[in-house]
Amino acid sequence: MEATANIPHYYLYGDQGADVELDLLNIEIIRERSGPNDWRIRPHAHPDHMQVLLVREGGGTIRMEELTLTIPVPGVLVIPAGIVHQIDFNPGTDGFVVTAALGCLKAAAASDPRLLDAASRAAVYSLEGTGVNIAAVTDTFYWLHREYVWSAPGRRTAILAQFMRILVVVLRLSITQEDPRIIAPDRDYDLLARYRALLEEHFRIERSPAFYADALAVTPARLNAACKNRAGKTASDLLYERVTIEAKRYLVYTESSVAQVAHMTGFDDPAYFNRFFTRQVGISPGAYRKQVAGSHE
To answer: What is the residue range of the signal peptide feature (predicted)?
Structure first.
């Protein structure tokens, strides 16, 4: 497979847009995206999102990194963030694809670290002979899709609840099936994963890539190279994105003032926070809050 730096990075396959609901998820029906693409999903990666697929009928093959596997039917596929993958579906294949932001994954897995661990391992699982109730698994994906397309009260909570059920299914499959994992073959992926974990711990107070490089026992140049290769972004880009996502959450989901949001995201100077946010997003924090509020009226 060609170098990952030359492989497209998407939120959704074929979608270059970056203005997405970064801390939630998307679910769609397999045939709706794969059919128009001649049932072939060409090599790509999702730097900030992971995927869980339920293949109900059809099948095909999936290549994750250097390993190609047959897709079992019915089966569940787990594609962690950053894993380069290609899928060749048999014509007529159907099921669901969940694309979840890492923040959404973290929120849904907060009650049990094993959920996060199972969702972070690339794997292909058959549902046959596992003891897992196939009808219940299908129903969970179906209801997640239904909640996603509805605009009913409690939509976000319902979506997270159904996604948590899917993660429980993944956890149980990981326990019942022997060695289903596809291990990422290079150190760049491992370094990026450890960098993201450190960001979660320190992004509010540590804004220097040199701090993270030192904590990871690598040079800043080495950290940058891994981030560019596996995420298509610099270490600073990923750090600033993480800060911006947190600021957006506070602006959208709390009534805190802009000055309070600045403090909660680690800025001593609200004016500097305003400049930072405007540079990252293109509009001021106050304007962003009004824009999002207006879009949900």
So the answer is: none
User: Whole-prediction pTM value?
Assistant: 0.72
What burial letters (b/e) apply to 241-258, b meaning 16+ CB within 10 Å?
bbbbbbbbbbbeeeeeeb
Distance CA 60, CA 62 (A): 7
Dump pLDDT digits (tens) for 144-180.
999 998 888 888 899 999 999 999 999 999 887 765 5
- Alpha helices for the chain (secondary structure H): 30-34, 102-108, 113-119, 134-149, 155-176, 187-202, 209-215, 220-231, 235-253, 258-264, 270-281, 285-295
Lowest-confidence pick of 21-25, 126-130, 147-151, 282-286: 21-25
